[in-house]
Amino acid sequence: MPDTVSGAKTLERGLGLLDHVANNVTRLDDIARAAGLSRSSTHRMLTSLVNSGFLAVDVEHRYRLGIKLLQLGSQAQASIDVSREIQLALDEVSARTHDATHLGVLIDTDILYLAKARGSRGIEMMSRPGIRLRAQNTAMGKVLLSTLSDDEAARRFDPEAVPTPNSARSVGDFLAGLARTRKRGFAVENQENELGVTCVAIGVPDRENRVVAAISVSAPSVHLPARRYSEVVEYLRRIQPTLSPLLPAGFESHWGSAPIA
């Protein structure tokens, strides 16, 4: 039993080091400090991770994510499976709007993108199935966060997660945005996650009428001005009754998310 506990603890610490490097903590001393470990213990674990391909280290002794994680990420992306019917529904919206359409679920503080239909404007979005983005800065995330109480939503807000000048910087602004989302029944993300990109999203209930997923349309902001929001929302609402029967009870938990209210 002690060996098992010790091994699990070492594994947990090693995974924690990967998280720190992923968050741009790249120097040995900084990683050790962030992890709360001794320099020697941190160095041993980092060396093991480098040897196994999970990390790499450059000539300036800075650590970065390794090729093994890229391989695992590709395999994970390939394993994310939604039904053909869901994909066809997204394709239909994309064909009508000419813009990228997504389906996602809330996992803790992030939105996990499960499926995507590409637009026809010849412009590729950064989004892809398997990517996780901070929910507070995305339209799908706002829709799902708006189903929570303000207290719970506020606990999932990070004032430091501000990828663009348009991102909410205070919990007050964030909660005010969720209030607007609840009132109008859809969410807008106007260049809050990526400059030059605007998204509109609505929630999608499962078969038990619980909002467990969201569907969005994303486009270069020049192609999705405010005057188009109602048009896009109409397309999304038309497809919603097609999607809901395809989402069984517990659909969101398959990817590790907590149930939404």
Broad shape:
elongated
Along the chain, the helix and strand elements come as: HHHEEHHEEEHHHEEEH
Q: Architecture of the largest domain in CATH?
A: 2-Layer Sandwich
Oligomeric organization of the protein chains: single chain
Number of strands: 8
| Whole-number total of structural domains | 2
Category by helix and strand content: alpha+beta
**Strand fraction:** 15-25%
**CATH level-1 class of the largest domain:** Alpha Beta
The largest β sheet comes out as: 6 strands, antiparallel
The total count of helices amounts to 9
Mean pLDDT score:
88
**Which fold name corresponds to the CATH topology of the largest domain?**
Beta-Lactamase
Q: Report the radius of gyration as a whole number of Å.
A: 20 Å
Corresponding CATH superfamily of the largest domain? GAF domain
Distance between the termini: 39 Å
Poorly predicted runs are 257-261
Question: Considering DSSP H and I runs of 4 or more, what fraction of the residues is helical?
Answer: 40-55%
Going across the biggest sheet, name each strand in turn. Answer: 5-4-3-8-7-6
